[in-house]
Amino acid sequence: MNASLISPALRTELSELYRAEDRHYHGITHIVALLSLFDEYRSAFSDPEAVEAAIWFHDAIYDSRAKDNETRSADLARERLAGTVSAERLSRIARMIEATATHTIPEIEPEAARRDAALLLDMDLSILGTAPETFDAYEAAVRREYAWVEEPLWIAGRGAVLKTFLEREHIFHTDIFRDRLERQARENLRRSIDALKARSAR
Q: Residue 76 and residue 54: Cα distance in Å, rounded?
């Protein structure tokens, strides 16, 4: 097993960012959950250390009022990992981080790197396919992160986001997660959209 790209000092620095008080979902618990999935599927990755680094950095910068969190998180990765990995590898890590903005597979080479990115993106979206009570807690946590958004705007905006995922031919990119979570994810999304519609009708 190769050495982690995330040094103890860097892990401490990033952990502090994820423990900010305004992080109700995009916090350290989310990172720990992704690292658990990463450990479960580690053998499926061609460059597991790069994926681990992308996990640690992908939500490092998080401001619910901003539109460039993923870009800024990728920039932070470029800054903190510069000189420790090759430029090509660092570019792949940054592209994986940036891809979490849209959850579409980035155009990176080689093909094995795209497979790594696909599996990372599926892990990041795995919360969508969890048990209903876990999914509902996730939805409530995200709402708290956007507490500044007025309810009518939240209902419209969140409904549009959830509908975008539901309208995909496949929510998950890999067979691993389609088989594991696709059905439950679709049930959760439909139920959440219906709940939002019910709130808007009050």
A: 11
3 state DSSP class of 190? helix
Domains of the chain, residue spans? 8-124, 127-200
Convert the pLDDT of each residue in 150-192 to its tens digit: 999 999 999 999 999 999 999 999 999 999 999 999 999 999 9
Q: How far apart are CA 187 and CA 182, in angstroms?
A: 9
Q: How far, CA to CA in Å, does 119 sit from each of 18, 51, 81, 173?
A: 22, 9, 22, 7
Outline where 67-201 has alpha helix (H).
69-81, 87-99, 111-124, 132-145, 151-166, 175-200
pLDDT in tens, 14-66: 999 999 999 999 999 999 999 999 999 999 999 999 999 999 999 999 999 99
User: Rounded CA gap, 13 and 17, in Å?
Assistant: 7
pTM: 0.95
Q: Over the stretch 49-61, which tens digit does the pLDDT of each residue have?
A: 999 999 999 999 9
Q: 46 CB contacts (<8 Å, ≥6 apart)?
A: 112, 113, 115, 116
Residue whose entry in the numeric block shows the structure tokens 């995009």: 26
Q: How many residues does the chain have?
A: 202
Q: Is 82 helix (H, G, I), strand (E, B) or coil?
A: strand
Rounded distance between C-alpha atoms, residue 194 and residue 188, angstroms:
10
Residue 93 to residues 90, 108, 157, 181: CA-CA distances in angstroms?
5, 10, 29, 25
